Amino acid sequence: MLAADNIAVSFGGIKAVKDVSFNVERGEVFSIIGPNGAGKTTIFNLISRIYDVDHGSVTFDDKDITNVPTHAIAELGIARTFQNTELFERETVLKNLLIGCHIHRKTNLLKDLLFLPSVRVQELEFRRAVEEVIDLLDLQSYRDKVIGNLPYGVRKMVEVARALCLKPKLLLLDEPSSGLNPEETEDLSFWLEDIKEDLGITVIMVEHDMNLVSRASDRVMALTDGALITIGTPAEVQNHPEVLRAFLGD
Amino acid sequence: MSALLELRNIETYYGPIMAIRGISMEVPEGKIVTLLGANGAGKTTVLKTISGAMDPLRGTITYRGEEIQTRDPDWVARKGIAHVPEGREVFPFLSVEDNLRMGAFTRKDGEIGKDLTLVYGYFPILEELAKTQAEYLSGGQQQMLAIGRALMLRPQLMLLDEPSLGLAPKLVHEIAEIIVRLNKEQSVTMLLVEQNAKMALDIGDLGYVMEMGRIVMEDSCERLRNATDIQEFYLGMKDEGVRGRRRWKQRKTWR
Amino acid sequence: MRFVRKTHYNQDIQLFKHNGQRFWYGLLAVFVLSAPLWLDRFYLGELSLVFIYAIAGIGLMLLVGYTGLVSLGHAAFLAIGAYTHAYLLGSGWPFPAAIIGAASLTAFVGIIVAIPALRMTGIYLAIATLAFAVIVEQVLTHWQSVTGGYRGMLVPDAELFGLDLTTPVIFYFLCLLMLTISLLVALNLLRSSSGRAMVAVRDSEVSAQSMGIHIASTKRMAFAISAGFTGLAGALFAHKIGYLSPDAFTLLTSIQLLLMVVVGGLGSLHGVIFGAIFIGLLPQGIALLRDVVPPAIAQIPGIEPGIFGLILVLFLIYEPLGMYGRWQKIRLFFEEFPLYRKATYKRQKSYLRTERLR
Ligand SMILES: Nc1ncnc2c1ncn2[C@@H]1O[C@H](COP(=O)(O)OP(=O)(O)OP(=O)(O)O)[C@@H](O)[C@H]1O
Ligand SMILES: Nc1ncnc2c1ncn2[C@@H]1O[C@H](COP(=O)(O)OP(=O)(O)OP(=O)(O)O)[C@@H](O)[C@H]1O
Ligand SMILES: [Mg+2]
Ligand SMILES: [Mg+2]
Description:
The structure holds 3 protein chains of 3 kinds.
Chain A: E1 2-11, E2 14-24, E3 29-33, H1 40-47, E4 55-60, E5 63-64, H2 72-76, E6 78-80, H3 93-100, H4 109-114, H5 117-136, H6 152-165, E7 170-174, H7 182-197, E8 202-206, H8 210-216, E9 219-224, E10 227-232, H9 234-238, H10 241-248
Parallel strand pairs in A: 3-8, 3-9, 6-7, 7-8
Antiparallel strand pairs in A: 1-2, 1-4, 4-5, 9-10
Helix pairs in contact in A: 3-6, 5-6
Chain B: E1 3-14, E2 17-28, E3 32-37, H1 43-51, E4 58-63, E5 66-67, H2 73-78, E6 81-84, H3 96-103, H4 112-122, H5 124-128, H6 139-151, E7 157-161, H7 169-185, E8 189-193, H8 197-203, E9 206-211, E10 214-220, H9 221-226, H10 228-233, H11 240-246
Parallel strand pairs in B: 3-8, 3-9, 6-7, 7-8
Antiparallel strand pairs in B: 1-2, 1-4, 4-5, 9-10
Helix pairs in contact in B: 3-6
Chain C: H1 10-13, H2 19-38, H3 41-66, H4 74-90, H5 95-117, H6 122-142, H7 144-147, E1 153-154, E2 159-160, E3 163-164, H8 168-190, H9 193-203, H10 205-210, H11 215-241, E4 243-244, H12 251-264, H13 269-292, H14 295-298, H15 303-318, H16 322-335
Antiparallel strand pairs in C: 1-4, 2-3
Bound molecules: adenosine-5'-triphosphate (ATP) (2 copies) and magnesium ion (2 copies).
One adenosine-5'-triphosphate (ATP) sits between chains B (14, 17, 19, 37, 39-45, 86) and A (148-153, 179).
């Protein structure tokens, strides 16, 4: 579904990602692990076109997306979350999720200004879609809260919810469990299952919590210093000597 | 009383929202105290109230016998209380080294260079990136920077808000070791907020558990580690039968 | 406290959320509609001016408060609207065509201004728009064949469906109608996806992009709409002042417009109305004050801008949410009456957070 072929990028002198290639199959949960600064977030930024690759290519659904504009990525069916959350802070959870529906709009500015009946119909449709996501992730009690006032853990979940509102084919999650306690992390692993099985969304996830990784993912890729160490099942990767040394410690 | 820091009936509001509902706690000198709690329990708010970033509406905070609850954060910092805030809050447009030097802003002594070496010793990656602008660091590197910056104050009390957030397992161990070392070698007192309850309870002496703005449990970390509630909700230890049931939203309903 | 039981998502989309609101806005409508019956002609004129300011304020608020782009050049849009309208009327266009033409041309100029402005934010954008205003001022003084240069330009009398627009009452209703339409259009914008795109761009460009929002075209759209509203206000303003000359549209005008949205309360349309009342009626208030204070104080030169400035500073210090923010607190006080805690709005110290990036 998604294939990265020899992608590389460097910032100044630092080679953040060095010729990494991987394939993500439709319907799987693919995790990326690695020590801090390994280049995991950078890979997300390359896929979602926030950075340009130095060389290499990314294909999604047999389409080369290496050069499409940033805002077009969402329309192709790729949604993402950010490591330290990037929400629309001054708006409510509901408004944030409605913004997530933006790519599904069929109206134009003129219709919006006049609020024609078609706009109302669309708003109701969006709202229904948003409520489904709210129900899935149990965010009912936060619906009308302003993001700036929410605790960190809830923001992480709102970000996942916003990404789901895009109805993506591929979901990129950057450390979804950071800031959640073990109980909440467990809920997350169930939600991941729902996302994968009920919604049929392929997931790429950057994660440090090995429990969650081994519970939720089908395959794992380990990186260090921008280079690939290995790709395999959670058990294989967890016991790889290089991974043990660089990532897990001891 | 030998408590270094003492909170008495603290109530803190965000506008009309009461986030801290009258909590009292003690941080004895030379100890590591951990504060656990679910999302939105108010842990961050407690730390912000202590460091002066927020004012409590009622209650007193005593530090070395002096009331500090209405003081400004810079005054509190000068007294030797360093705060590692939630979400890192590094200065994005300053270089890593300048960020660290900002941590020592209030110090007048000549040993800043020495402490810089010390921090670089703890986090070698920061030395490699010393001239990089902080906004370009990876999430985990920013977290290290925030901790390093707090160390530069040479604090007597450190308020750590989820220091392990976004760190790889190996580094979580290292951070835990650093906290213990600072505590043992330089007798820095620690107030540690953590989602990684296992780590926090392993290194902590004393633990408090918060729910909805109140303290619901306090004990030695050792005993907390063995309490069933703690094991279930914070350490994620439970038998498979329970897990299967919880799959169908059998979650704490009193949240 | 009022709790509305919602049974349909439509209730969140509706303009009036509950009967209480319908009642109060109805009362307001009766008040403004009946004003000509009991209000002195002079004050009716001032109220028309408030409405005109409010229309321009809606435009500026959409740009500043909702898209997060600052403009110090809105006097230029006001001027373009005013001059275009006067010119078109002078060349024989009927009133409705002229006013639509004026607003559209201003919106178009807005798009052009947006092109260099796309890459700028904050102080740089403020300077760029200021430069734009200076250019427009120069054009107004030097393009004598159209604008009459320093001498200025007489605004032709106009009539609409046989009604003489120079009559204060007719003009008052015209302004009221335009304001109502503008408010409706702005509200429609804000409750639909175009408006949400603007808000998204304001709060986080990175994630707006990842949501599929085209940053450049959203900013362009915001500039166009903002300029369009301001141009419309300019056209009405032309009738109000009757005679156009460049010194009616200076930097001070731009600053006054910006003041209006800040003092009213950034990020709300209520704020615009409060701000417009404030900006529109303050000079009258100051004039009234002049009569009662000793002449020695009343004659101090520059007292008017001084008071403006003082009020602005006081607002920024004590009520950053503006007049609308203050109003909400007063309302909450009455709603919760015996239960209201003084601490509810005790202001917490606030510290700006650093940019969050990764
Ligand atoms: N825009 C940038 N400019 C300069 N250097 C950058 C930039 N973005 C990332 N880097 C560097 O590239 C490396 C990889 O960063 P990245 O954010 O991908 O790490 P990561 O694997 O996500 O780590 P973490 O687990 O800590 O989030 C880091 O050393 C970082 O300092
Ligand atoms: N700026 C704010 N305005 C209003 N309410 C707030 C604000 N910040 C936090 N709150 C509320 O205060 C309560 C406590 O929040 P706090 O951030 O202290 O939680 P926390 O225990 O640190 O959670 P987490 O583990 O997710 O960081 C929450 O219910 C939250 O909604
Ligand atoms: Mg990262
Ligand atoms: Mg917190």
